[in-house]
């Protein structure tokens, strides 16, 4: 009988998985079934590192699903987590915080930006802790991430609000002029995008319904 297990994650060390054959002699009647076939005892002896990686990958997958992110983002986050874990420079830090920080970094690196608040919103760790870990990971991996821009969020925000392309075009122009005239210095791209969309929607006749 063919025994097929779950697909092995290439990021997990294959040496963590072992198959043990019971007993020492196939002639022992206790090692064969009623059809004379040898009995095997499959046992997965996973190391502590393997358990950490498995738990982190599961957490990343769940957060990515909650944020409706494509698989390449979770794959990138998994790789980042393993790289950080192997350095052993974040011992004592919450694995959930590291997982969340890696997911946020993966979004930035893969050009699928999510706000820091959005990513933290699906985590069980505080934003403060995730922020600290994120900065440490940048130093540990000696890498950086591209700065997010207003345009990175404009299309998605307008889509989430069911606003048409006309509003998006006006909002882009509003944001561009505000940046060119240095009217929003120190403001985050998310804040600028939100303000520009509000102004554009208002100018084009969109009104938020009053709640009773």
Brief overview:
The chain contains 8 helices and 2 strands, in the order E-E-H-H-H-H-H-H-H-H.
Question: What does it look like?
Answer:
- The protein is mostly helical.
- It has 2 domains: 48-141, Cyclin A, domain 1 (Orthogonal Bundle), CATH 1.10.472; 150-204, Cyclin A, domain 1, CATH 1.10.472.10.
- Helices cover 53% and strands 3% of the residues.
- The chain is built from 8 helices and 2 strands.
- Strands 1-2 form a two-stranded antiparallel sheet.
- Mean pLDDT is 82; it is low at 1-7 and 14-43.
- One of its GO terms (cellular component) is transcription preinitiation complex.
- This is Transcription initiation factor IIB.
- It is found in: Nucleus.
Tally of structural domains: 2
How many helical stretches?
Answer: 8
Q: Poorly predicted ranges (pLDDT <50, ≥5 residues)?
A: 1-7, 14-43
Helix content: 40-55%
End-to-end Cα distance, whole Å, is 67 Å
Order of strands across the widest beta sheet? 1-2
CATH class bucket of the largest domain: Mainly Alpha
Instruction: Give the biggest beta sheet.
Output: 2 strands, antiparallel
Order of helices and strands, N to C? EEHHHHHHHH
The secondary-structure class comes to mainly alpha
Using only C-alpha atoms, the radius of gyration works out to 25 Å
β-strand number: 2
Oligomeric state of the chains in view: single chain
User: How much strand content do the residues show?
Assistant: under 5%
In one word, what is the shape? Answer: elongated
Q: Mean pLDDT across all residues, rounded? A: 82
CATH topology group of the largest domain:
Cyclin A, domain 1
Q: In the CATH hierarchy, what is the architecture of the largest domain at level 2?
A: Orthogonal Bundle
Looking at CATH, the homologous superfamily of the largest domain is Cyclin-like
């Amino acid at each position: 009988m063919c025994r097929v297990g779950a697909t092995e994650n290439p990021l997990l060390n294959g040496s963590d998985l072992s198959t043990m054959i019971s007993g020492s002699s196939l002639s022992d009647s206790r090692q064969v079934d009623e059809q004379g076939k040898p009995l095997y005892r499959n046992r997965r002896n996973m190391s502590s590192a393997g358990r950490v990686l498995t738990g982190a990958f599961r957490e990343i997958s769940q957060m990515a699903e909650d944020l409706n992110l494509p698989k390449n983002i979770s794959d990138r986050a998994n790789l980042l987590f393993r790289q950080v874990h192997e350095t052993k420079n974040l011992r004592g830090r919450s694995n959930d915080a590291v997982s969340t920080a890696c997911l946020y970094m993966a979004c930035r690196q893969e050009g699928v930006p999510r706000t820091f608040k959005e990513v933290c919103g699906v985590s069980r760790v505080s934003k403060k802790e995730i922020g600290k870990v994120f900065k440490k990971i940048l130093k540990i991996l000696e890498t950086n991430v591209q700065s997010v821009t207003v345009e990175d969020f404009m299309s998605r925000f307008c889509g989430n609000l069911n606003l048409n392309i006309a509003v998006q075009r006006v909002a882009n122009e509003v944001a561009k002029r505000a940046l060119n005239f240095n009217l929003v210095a120190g403001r985050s791209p998310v804040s600028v995008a939100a303000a520009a969309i509000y102004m554009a929607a208002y100018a084009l006749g969109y009104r938020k319904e009053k709640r009773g």
